[in-house]
Amino acid sequence: MTMREVTATALSPQPTVSHSIARLESKGLVERVQSNTDRRVRLVRLTNEGHDLARSLVNDARRHEQNVLDTTAVDDLAPIVAVLTDLCKQLDRQTDRQIDSQVEQTT
Question: Are strands 30-34 and 42-46 parallel, antiparallel or unpaired?
């Protein structure tokens, strides 16, 4: 991913993302490499250690989610699902607007 893509995905200001990437890089979790197609662009990618950590975190999150769902009554989940569905739709619209804006900037 380019830094611009990371910034857009994180929905955070560029200086914050740059600082976070630098910290992750110093811990050996990501690396910055030059793009093969555009020498001006530097890409950020996970190292093997970063992939391992990401997998571990996702697995932990899934276990936690399952534990919460296992202890929650089905009737209690309906309003939560409705709110989450609405939030996902809002995020999709916001992402679409950001993509449209980026496309306009590059054309």
Answer: antiparallel
